Amino acid sequence: MPAPDIRDSIQTALAAFSEKPLRQAATALLNTLGYESDRTVELEGSKPAAFLDFIKSGANGDRFDRAKALFDDWKSADILFQLTDEEIAGHATLFKETEVRTGLLQSYLFFAIELTGKNYARGKLTSIARQINRVFPHARSCPTPCARFGA
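^ that's the sequence the OP posted. Answer follows.
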């Protein structure tokens, strides 16, 4: 039996967004695309307030502008995982770390944020990503967050 085409795998992962919790569906999609890491943070119940508590515990938490991040529109927020350059290059380390290190200079942070509204202009989504990037200045993140819009 031939291996499934990557396009079929991506389509299946995208369809799961309507059936599974956002964190689970987003992580599965990223895994399908080849992005995996054990370095994660579980925020209490994916609550936006738990995200705020997490960032306020860091050195740059005061740089987060709730209005520009459209924070009042956040239904849920998850830090899916942190992917380091070492993991991207496929180099194994002797000691396996699973903790997100917000000051890690060469890394990517993957977030999933569920929004209450139905339609958001690209500029508004970019504003959310910019506010997250202000809190994690050393990590790189995609210019647009993985977002699911309200029901």
